[in-house]
Amino acid sequence: MRVCTSISCISMLPPVKKDRVITQLPKCFSANAALHTKEGFHPHVKAACQLQKADTVSFNVAKVIVVGDVAVGKTCLISRFCKGAFEKNYKATIGVDFEMERFEVLGVPFSLQLWDTAGQERFKCIASTYYRGAQAIIVVFDLSSVGSLAHARQWLEDAMKENDPSSVLLFLVGTKKDLSSPDLLAQIEQEAMRLSEEIKAEYWAVSAKSGDGVKDFFFRVASLTFEANVLSELERSGSRHVGDIIRITDSTETSHKPKKKPNCC
Length: 265
Ligand code: GDP
Ligand code: MG
What we know:
Protein name: RAB34, member RAS oncogene family b
Bound molecules: guanosine-5'-diphosphate, magnesium ion
Number of domains: 1
Number of helices: 9
Mean pLDDT: 83
Order of helices and strands: HEHEHEEHEHHEHEHH
Structural class: alpha/beta
Distance between the termini: 18 Å
CATH architecture: 3-Layer(aba) Sandwich
InterPro entries: P-loop_NTPase, Rab, Small_GTP-bd, Small_GTPase
Pfam family, one: Ras
Keywords: GTP-binding, Nucleotide-binding
GO molecular function, one term: GTPase activity
Low-confidence stretches: 1-10, 240-265
């Protein structure tokens, strides 16, 4: 599968939908398990975007991989956000699938490449070859299944083998909130919060069925990856002076580590 990220390809895409415009940093789900609880975007990011708007057309893409046990709800989570619908009938994901969702953050075009991976053991090898170069890892578990949370750590370890721990943002997402009883939800959330603190991930609880929290969650992912990309671009350009004009480029091409051979296949 080839992913087109060139400026000519992006400019051929339709304009960003009105409901994908982000002008403020969206709130975290829980202040106790957030990557940061700042009120707004970093001032340097805001300043760079303001200059960018007045300057040349640019774009930015973040690769996001979604991992977790089979049938926890990864595909439904992505479909609910990208297609606005809930798929009741289970269709196993073969290897990997991929959706591109376009945003405008602080006036700058930005896209998330959402890589939906298979949770089944026999597809794990194929899926893991797509883990490389992620800016964010979303580890999904089922809020009505304690077992799926217990496996979250292993999923994260596998995904991290292919990535640079210092530059990747982690999210731990409990799905099927609509199915969990209040008692089970309270118990599993306590454990999930503990784990997210330990692995330095941001915790979210959502439901693809009702849509509860799904849009807020992906807006947060888009905003935090965008902010991280712009900050690292500013750092790379060797300047944090807000007066400097920077060009926000496709960081998926520059942040790739040398290709590692997968441990399997
Ligand atoms: P994946 O293997 O992790 O991609 O899981 P899927 O997204 O394919 O979902 C597995 C099953 O869980 C399907 O039958 C979905 O209809 C169901 N499911 C997914 N998300 C939810 C949710 O939020 N609520 C409920 N009640 N069911 C869900
Ligand atoms: Mg799937």
